[in-house]
Write a structure and sequence with these properties.
About 35% of the residues lie in helices and about 20% in strands. The protein has one domain: Peptidase C15, pyroglutamyl peptidase I-like (Aminopeptidase). The protein is globular, with a radius of gyration of 17 Å. It has five helices and nine strands.
C-alpha cells in the first residue's frame, strides 16, 4: 500500500507550519505501508495541480492531506469537504477568492472515504486529544480536500482521500494569548497512530471484500 501524505508550507506570516513539520517527521513506512511525503504551497489552484501530478506519478492507494488549524485544541479528522472557496485572508500568492465554486461540475459536498472515527479513537486511546470535525473551513485546506475528492469522483474511483487538521505548536502561540497549542512530537505521534489505524482498517475492509472473514 502507498499513502501520499502532504503538508502545507507556512502561511499568514507564520514562520512554521506544523502540518509540514509533521509530514517531514513521519516514518517512511507505517504498518508496511509506504509513506510518500510531499510539501505543497498554501496557494489555491497550485496546490491542487501539484497533488494531482503526484497522484499520477506515484499512483497511491490513499491521499492524506494535513493542514494547520490554529485555534483548535485537538488533532481533527475531517469528515466532509464543500464546493466553496471563500478566503478570510489571501493565500501565499495573494489570491483571495470570495464565494467561488471550486469545480462547476462537482458535487456540493463530498464525504471522506477514510474511517475518521476509528482514526480519532486510536489517537485518543494514547491520551492525545483528537476529534472528528465536520468543517474543513473554506480556505486552501478545504480546497485541497475537495480537489482530491473531485478527482476520486471523476477519475480515480479506487482512490481514497482524507484530511487531518493539526493545532498550533507552542512556538507559534507565544504572542497569541489564549490560543491552544500542542507539542509537535505529540502531533507526529498522533498522526502516526491515525495512519496505523487507517492501514489496519483498510486491510480488514479488503479481507471482507474478498470474503476472507465472512461465512
Amino acid at each position: 500500500m502507498k499513502i501520499l501524505v502532504t503538508g502545507f508550507d507556512p502561511f499568514a506570516k507564520e514562520q512554521i507550519n506544523p502540518a509540514l513539520e509533521v509530514v517531514k517527521q513521519l516514518p517512511d513506512e507505517i504498518e508496511n505501508a509506504q509513506i510518500i511525503k510531499l510539501e505543497i504551497p498554501t496557494v489555491f489552484h497550485q496546490a491542487g495541480f501539484i497533488v494531482e501530478q503526484a497522484i499520477k506519478n506515484y499512483q497511491p492507494d490513499i491521499v492524506l492531506n494535513i493542514g494547520q488549524a490554529g485555534g483548535r485544541f485537538a488533532i481533527t479528522f475531517e469528515k466532509v469537504t464543500i464546493n466553496l472557496a471563500d478566503a478570510r485572508i489571501a493565500d501565499n500568492m495573494g489570491e483571495q477568492p470570495i464565494d467561488e465554486t471550486i469545480f462547476a461540475d462537482g458535487q456540493t459536498a463530498y464525504f471522506t472515504q477514510l474511517p475518521v472515527k476509528a482514526m480519532a479513537a486510536a489517537v485518543k486511546a494514547e491520551k492525545i486529544p483528537a476529534a472528528v470535525s465536520y468543517t474543513a473551513g473554506t480556505f486552501v485546506c478545504n480546497y485541497i480536500m475537495y480537489y482530491v475528492q473531485y478527482l476520486i469522483d471523476k477519475r480515480y474511483p479506487s482512490l481514497k482521500g482524507g484530511f487531518i487538521h493539526v493545532p498550533f505548536i507552542p512556538a507559534q502561540v507565544i504572542d497569541k494569548p489564549n490560543q491552544p497549542a500542542m507539542n509537535l512530537q505529540d502531533i507526529v505521534h498522533g498522526v502516526t497512530l491515525a495512519i496505523k489505524a487507517l492501514v489496519t482498517y483498510n486491510d480488514q475492509a479488503d479481507i471482507k471484500t474478498f470474503g476472507g472473514t465472512e461465512h
